[in-house]
Amino acid sequence: MKGTDVSCKLVEVLIKSGKGVVGMCAAVFGLAKATVLINELIARKGFDMTGVYNDVMQFFEEYAETEECKECFEKHGL
């Protein structure tokens, strides 16, 4: 599976995580846990993912402020 396919599937899971903010929070928390786990697994293989991890976090912060993100939330009643 390509990275783009994975990210599209993750977005689909987040959007369909249940009604209201509780399901969304649970999905985001799970995604955060998976990100930390992946970071740890890569570190145990001898690689440093810190730069990528920081870039991803910055992307999330910036994307949350875009019109695209806001429209997506509105479209799904969030």
Could you explain how this protein is built, in words?
With 78 residues, the protein is an all-alpha fold. It has four helices and no strands. α1 runs antiparallel to α2 (20-44).
Distance between the termini: 29 Å
Helix/strand structural class: mainly alpha
Helix content: over 70%
> What order do the helices and strands follow?
HHHH
The biggest beta sheet, please?
none
**Quick one: overall form?**
globular
Please state the CA-atom Rg, rounded to the nearest Å.
14 Å
Give the uncertain stretches in residue-range form. Answer: none
Instruction: Give the number of DSSP strands.
Output: 0
Specify the number of helices: 4
Query: Which whole number gives the mean pLDDT?
Result: 80
What is the compact description of this entry?
This protein is mostly helical and about 80 residues long. It contains 4 helices and no strands.
How would the blueprint of this fold be written?
Elements: H1 3-15, H2 20-44, H3 50-63, H4 67-75
Helix pairs in contact: 1-2
